[in-house]
Design goal:
With 224 residues, the chain is α/β, with parallel strands linked by helices. It contains eight helices and six strands. The strands form two sheets. A four-stranded parallel β-sheet has the order 1-6-5-2, with helices on both faces. Helix 4 packs across helix 6. The chain is globular, with a radius of gyration of 18 Å. The structure holds zinc ion (2 copies). The site of one zinc ion has 8 residues, from helix 1. InterPro entries: ComF/GntX_DNA_util-trans, PRTase-like, PRTase_dom. It comes from Salinicoccus kekensis. This is Competence protein ComFC.
């Protein structure tokens, strides 16, 4: 077997501990590098690196004032240099096998939520990339998906300025194909790849909260 990230051969040392457990898809060096969090004070909620003397996270303060309340925010990885590289290879070089690497870090199970909702990509972006980067990871993690959201937006979040991101209108709408599916009192998990300001997932949550779920949490692959 080879490490899915650096392609080096994995040499499993057979001992009593790993004899009965399936080896992971990564060599230990890659696993350590991908899992590393950049040093510094973090927001307890969104894990943003806080500025010097910043008592409360300004992103979370803004979100609280602008959006209805969302439950937990879970970030699998920091957006460190290695994760940045992984995301680039995955999304832009379209090395779709890397979805397996990301799925390895998912800690929620299929019983934890009733609906796993990937942030949708616009039809244009889907055509260019050929896949939805979130959907592929969920598939490999063995999680079912409810495509409750649709989007037709043209501009990428990364193409917008901070101010534009904060003020832009909601790019998501409810996917009417799901209008007969029960959402009320269910547990919903929104899944995104990179949490930057949090605006994207809060826009998504805003649409879904109209359906009165019992819980609505967020999982992102990395925290920028
Ligand atoms: Zn490796
Ligand atoms: Zn925060």
């Amino acid at each position: 077997m080879r490490c899915l990230y650096c392609h080096r051969r994995l040499e499993p040392e057979l001992d009593l501990l790993n004899l009965f457990t399936r080896p992971g898809p990564l060599c230990s060096e890659c696993e350590i590098r991908l899992k590393e969090w950049r040093k510094g004070g973090r927001c307890g909620r969104c894990r943003r690196l806080m500025g010097e003397g910043e008592a409360e996270c300004r992103d979370c303060i803004y979100l609280k004032s602008r959006f209805p309340p969302v439950g937990k925010i879970m970030c699998m990885l920091d957006y460190n240099e290695e994760v940045k590289m992984l995301m680039h290879r995955y999304k832009f070089v379209r090395d779709i096998a890397l979805a397996e690497v990301l799925s390895y870090f998912i800690t929620v199970g299929r019983r934890d939520y009733d609906h796993f909702v990937p942030i949708p990509v616009s039809p244009g972006r889907f055509r260019d990339r050929g896949f939805n980067q979130i959907t592929e990871v969920l598939k490999r993690a063995g999680l079912p998906q409810s495509n409750l959201l649709e989007t037709g937006k043209v501009k990428l979040q990364s193409e917008l300025s901070r101010h534009e991101r904060m003020s832009s209108a909601n790019p998501f709408t409810f996917n009417e194909e799901y209008r007969d599916v029960r959402l009320r009192d269910t547990r919903i998990l929104i899944v995104d790849d990179i949490y930057t300001t949090g605006i994207t997932v809060h826009h998504a949550a805003e649409v879904l909260l109209h359906h009165e779920p019992a819980a609505l949490d967020v999982l992102t692959f990395s925290k920028a």
